[in-house]
From TrEMBL, chains A, B:
Name of the protein: Nitronate monooxygenase family protein
GO molecular function annotation: monooxygenase activity
Keyword Oxidoreductase: yes
UniProt key word Ribosomal protein: no
Entry-linked Pfam families: NMO
CDD domains in UniProt: NPD_like
Protein origin, superkingdom: Bacteria
InterPro entries named in the record: Aldolase_TIM, NMO
Keyword field: Flavoprotein, FMN, Monooxygenase, Oxidoreductase
Length: 371, 371
C-alpha cells in the first residue's frame, strides 16, 4: 500500500487517522499511518501543549498531524460567559426537559461544569496552532474548509502541508485556489461535519477537479481494506478515517473504570442505519450516532439548532451529563455509517494490520479481472 | 473485466444496465453488458409484447433482462379511474397551481391524457411478467424488494434468475431467504427508489451478510471505470447502472424532433449536488433531479406526497405537461448523484468501451500498490 504520498510523509501506509485521542493518534503513527490529533476539545492551550509533548515522546519519532476547526464564516467571538447570553431561554428549557424525560441525572455538585467547545472560534484555533508549531506537526488539517490565508502561509513557512475538508467540487476548487495542499473529500456517509454527496461520486469528482494541483484523500465510510482499495480505485492517494478509531482499545476519553465507555458500547451495538445528519451537535450539519437524544431533537415541537458556536455551548453541559449517566441509549457522539462495521474493541496495531492485509488481498483479487 | 458472473450470463462484462428504453437496453446487450428493460411504464401488455419482440430481433442473440416494480406491501388495486377517486382535492389544486406558477401550459386538446404508471400494481406487473416469459429474458429484476414467492418460483421454472434491490442488510437477508438469486445493493447516491446508506458502506455490508447465498451487484453512483473498480473492490461481482444511460444517444423517450429532450438537457447541465431524495414521484423515497418542480414540493404549505400508487396518478398529467413544455428548469425525472458526470450525449458502445478501458487502467494502477 506504500505510495508516493506515504513516501512524502515518511509513513508506511497512506492511512490518515483523525482522532481526539492522543493515545490513538500516537498508536496509528507508530503502526505506520499518520495519527492526526483533533484539537478542538482543548480550550486551554497549556493542556494542548502538554498533550503534544506527550505525542512527541510517544510516537517513536514517527510523524503525526494536528487538526483544528476554523469555519470559513468567522463565528461570533466571545468568552463562554458572553456567548451564553445569546442562547434563548426556550432552548435551555428544551434541553433540560429532554434530559429529565430521558432519565439523565443532573451533575453532582463536586463536578466542574464544562464550558463547551470553543475550539471553532478563530481566536482559540489560532492559539492552538501557535502551540502546535512549537512541536513537530507533519500536517495541519482544518476540519471545515480552508483556514485563513495567514495560517496557510505560516504552516508553509514551517514546511508543514495544510489539509482541508471538502464536501463538494466547488469547495475543493476554492481550497486549491487558497493554497491548500491536501483536499479531504468527505462523503455523505462520514461522521461529523459532512455534505450530501456520497464518496462513490464525490471522490473521483474532486480528483478530476483538482488535477495535479492538490493531493486528495477519501473520507467517509472507510473501515476495511476493501474500502481503502475502493477509495484508491476512485483516485484518492490515501484515506482519512475518523469514526473507525473510536472503538480502538487505546481510546480512553469518557471511559469508565472498566476501560470502555457507554459511548463505545453504543457504537459497538449500532448498525449502519443508526446514524443521523443533524445540526444539534455543533450548529452545522454533522453525522451523529442516532440515539434517544438525537431523536428528541427531531420530534414535533423541538427547537431548531442554534448557529455555531452557540449550539455546542447550549448542549455542553448536556453532553457532560450524558457521559456521566453512562447510558448507551442516550449518547451524543459524531459517527459515520461505518459504525455498522465497528463491532469490537481492538488495539490500533491489529486494526492497521488487517486493513493492509485486506487491501492487498483485494488488489490481488481485482488483478485477476484486469486486462 | 470478464468474471464468473459474466460467464454465467454469457456476457462479456458484468455491467447490468437498467433503462426504460428498449433501444438503450439492446445497445448495452450488443456491446457486451446486460441490458435490462424497465417495464413499469407499460400499462398495456400488448405494447410490452411488441417491444420485447423488437428486443428479440435487435440484440444479435445476446441476452437481456426485464425489470418490474412490485412493492412488498401490495398497493391498493384498482383501475386508474377508481384510484383517482382516492386523491384529495387539495393535492390536485396544489399540482395545478404549481404548474401554473412554473409556466407549464395545459395539454392541447388533441393529446391523449396519460393515466399514470400502473406497473407497480401487482396485477399489472403480473401481466407484464406473463408477457416477458413468452420471450427469452435472462434476468427478472424487481426494482423494489423481493417479488411474491410464486413469481420467483415461476422464473426459476423457466431457468431465469431473479434480482431484487436492497438498501440495507436486513432487506438483503430477507431476499436470500425468499430465494432471490441476485441482490442489488442500491446505495443512497442512486437514482430512483433508494435508502439512506451510501454504497461505500452498503456494498461490503451486504456482500458479507449474504455470503455465498447470493450474488451481489453494486448500484448507485457508477458512471466510470474507476467506480466499477471500486464497486468490485468492495466485493460486488458486477454493477447495476441506471441513471448513466439516460444520456445515451440511443435514448429517445420524450425526445423532440432534434433527438434530445429537455430532460436530457437538464441532466447534462446538472451537478452531483442537483438531486433530491423525495416521495413526490411514486409515493416512496426516490432520488430525482432537483428542479423547480421538486423544489415546489418542499416549500412551506406544500402537501405531503400520497402513498404509492396514488402519488404517481396524481402527478401523471403534470409529468406529461412538463415533458410537453420542453423546459429544462421544470423536469420530473429520477436521477442519481452520478448526474454530475453525465455531460455528453454518447452512443452506448462508446460509453461501454470507456468503462472497460478505465476499469483496466485502474486495476493496473492499484496493482502497483499491492504486495
Amino acid at each position: 500500500m506504500h505510495n508516493a504520498l506515504a513516501e512524502k510523509f515518511g509513513i508506511k501506509y497512506p492511512i490518515f487517522a483523525f482522532t481526539p485521542s492522543e493515545h490513538v493518534a500516537a498508536a496509528v503513527s507508530r503502526a505506520g499511518g499518520l495519527g492526526v490529533l483533533g484539537c478542538v476539545r482543548f480550550n486551554d492551550p497549556e493542556e494542548l501543549d502538554a498533550t503534544l509533548n506527550w505525542m512527541d515522546e510517544n510516537t517513536d519519532g514517527k510523524p503525526y498531524g494536528v487538526d483544528v476547526v476554523m469555519p470559513a464564516k468567522v463565528p461570533t467571538e466571545g468568552t463562554a460567559v458572553d456567548l451564553d447570553k445569546l442562547i434563548p431561554a426556550e432552548h435551555r428549557a428544551f434541553v433540560n426537559r429532554t434530559l429529565d424525560e430521558l432519565g439523565v441525572p443532573p451533575l453532582s455538585d463536586d463536578v466542574e461544569h464544562a464550558t463547551g467547545v470553543l475550539g471553532w472560534l478563530h481566536s482559540v484555533a489560532r492559539a492552538q496552532l501557535d502551540v502546535a508549531f512549537k512541536h513537530r506537526p507533519a500536517l495541519i488539517a482544518n476540519a471545515l474548509g480552508s483556514p485563513p490565508k495567514d495560517i496557510i502561509d505560516e504552516a508553509h513557512s514551517h514546511g508543514v502541508p495544510v489539509a482541508a475538508l471538502a464536501g463538494a467540487v466547488a469547495h475543493a476548487r476554492s481550497h486549491v485556489e487558497n493554497g491548500i495542499d491536501i483536499v479531504i473529500a468527505q462523503g455523505y456517509e462520514a461522521g461529523g461535519h459532512t455534505g450530501e454527496i456520497a464518496s462513490m461520486v464525490l471522490v473521483p469528482e474532486i480528483v478530476d477537479a483538482v488535477g495535479d494541483s492538490s493531493t486528495v484523500l477519501a473520507a467517509g465510510g472507510i473501515g476495511s481494506g476493501r474500502q481503502i482499495a475502493a477509495a484508491l480505485a476512485l483516485g484518492a492517494e490515501g484515506v482519512w478515517m475518523g469514526s473507525y478509531w473510536l472503538t480502538a482499545a487505546e481510546y480512553r476519553l469518557g471511559s469508565a473504570a472498566d476501560g470502555t465507555s457507554a459511548t463505545q458500547r453504543a457504537l459497538l451495538a449500532a448498525t449502519s442505519s443508526d446514524t443521523v445528519r443533524s445540526r444539534i451537535y455543533s450548529g452545522k450539519p454533522a453525522r451523529l450516532l442516532k440515539t434517544k437524544w438525537t431523536e428528541a431533537w427531531s420530534q414535533p415541537g423541538a427547537p431548531e439548532a442554534l448557529p455555531m458556536p452557540l449550539q455546542n455551548l447550549l448542549v455542553a453541559e448536556a453532553h457532560q451529563r450524558i457521559v456521566a449517566s453512562e447510558n448507551p441509549d442516550v449518547v451524543a457522539m459524531p459517527a459515520g455509517q461505518i459504525v455498522g462495521r465497528m463491532n469490537e474493541i481492538r488495539p490500533v496495531a491489529d486494526t492497521m494490520g488487517d486493513l493492509v492485509a485486506e487491501f492487498e488481498a483485494t488488489v490481488a483479487r481485482l488483478n485477476n479481472l484486469g486486462g
